[in-house]
Amino acid sequence: MSRKYRRLNGQTPMQVYTKIAFIGILVCIAYAVLSKGEFIRHLTWTGETAGIYPDLFESVRDSANHYPYDWKAIYPPLIYTVLYFFSKLVPGDYVTLRGFADASETPNGLLVGTLFFMIVTVAVCVLAAERLGLKNRGLLELMIVLVFSPAYLFMLERGNVVILALLCLEYYTFNYESDDAVKRELALIALAFATCMKLYPVFFGVLLLRKDKLKEVVRCIVYGLVLFIVPFFAMGGLKEIPHLFENITKISVDTIASTKGFGYGFKVNVGNIWGAITEHLGMNGSGAELVGSILLLAVVVQIVVVVLLAQEKWEKIYSLTMILTLIPSFSWIYNEIYLLIPFVLYFAAHRTMKRSDWGYILLFSLITVPLPYASFFKSLPGYHKVSLSTLTGNVAMLALLMLLCVKSVLTFVQARTSKSESYPQDQMQATE
């Protein structure tokens, strides 16, 4: 064992990862200064802007008049019911299409939006730190690492409420197996909240599919239905339910169609990265689309395999987060923020540094540590080119999923082989 490895072996995998993250952060800060802000420009929306925290205040506008789905809103009404109160804290002209942008740039808008993201971010980090056993300095380091991650930076610039869904999912995954009955029940409610904000967190419900949790499954479904249906009465009535799903379908199609307009740079789904590669290489056509469909199917199969066969909890949850990141056509970089959950679970379960941890730490780092932003595939249309972090994040997520799939299959086969080999011996002993 090398002297360098012995020094690192005295630390936890979390400590090693944090060191790598801080190096990446310092490099990016230096690059931002030397490039005169070019680094930051690649982090933000470079097309037509819409004020401060635009995603947040666009949803505030949608909620202000109680008919969000007339504005092509795509979230369930729960989030609009909550954000309705934001419209009272931040007065503005919410009856016009762009009025929300002006409202967001007022002192009220800046203060309310900033406090919202600060409070939710602190709550997310406190939950994670508690799971990791971190206090004071450890908590601060965790917050810095999260805040400087590409997913968080893009989420903050956009002002997307995905951070609130993350908080709910985080509480759910950390507590749905708790010995405390109150925490378990709150975990079910948290999952229902997350689902009724972003819909696709519903897949995390598969973690409850066990014989001893059937009652909890039923209660979670009831919580979800209540939180999904009741807010409709405040946002246009039950007649808006089909309107919601119509809007979701339309924006999914529009997002795919408009990719060439705003570019491939800030989306991380499989279809997006494959589209960027094929268009850059001039491979557009039915053949490329077929390969893209096969790749998507391969990802889905790997997710299912890991969920069914993985031995460690963090591995199952990582595969579920891939449903939220690699699958949806409208999956943006900020969806990678969900990966905080399986990464925390990994570091919580692996307290001693081993050689096998290096591979995972490297992949975690490529996904979450900011890299100097440079544009790839400059021949592509649109004003958002594929950045270094987008490319490495995609490759690392796919590589980690493949690694966990292979590991799960091998572990399953070895277990079945060992069982079959021991069976004849057990039978012989029984005969004797």
Structure description:
Helix content is 68%, strand content 1%. It is mainly alpha-helical and 432 residues long. The protein folds into two domains: 34-41 and 258-415, no CATH class; 47-257, no CATH class. It has a two-stranded antiparallel sheet. The longest helix has 44 residues, at 388-431. The protein is globular. It starts with a helix and ends with a helix. The relative contact order is 0.12. Residues 1-6 have low confidence and may be disordered.
Short description:
With 432 residues, the protein is an all-alpha fold. The protein has 20 helices and two strands.
Indicate the mean pLDDT.
86
Question: In what range is the share of β-strand residues?
Answer: under 5%
Count up the domains: 2
Largest beta-sheet details:
2 strands, antiparallel
> Outline, from the CA principal axes?
globular
Unreliable stretches: 1-6
| Rg, Å, rounded | 23 Å
Following the backbone from N to C, one meets helices and strands in this order, namely HHHHHHHHHHHHHHHHHHHEEH
Q: Order of strands side by side in the largest beta sheet? A: 1-2
Oligomer: single chain
Number of strands: 2
Query: What structural class is derived from the secondary structure elements?
Result: mainly alpha
Distance between the termini: 49 Å
Helix content: 55-70%
Number of alpha- plus pi-helical segments: 20
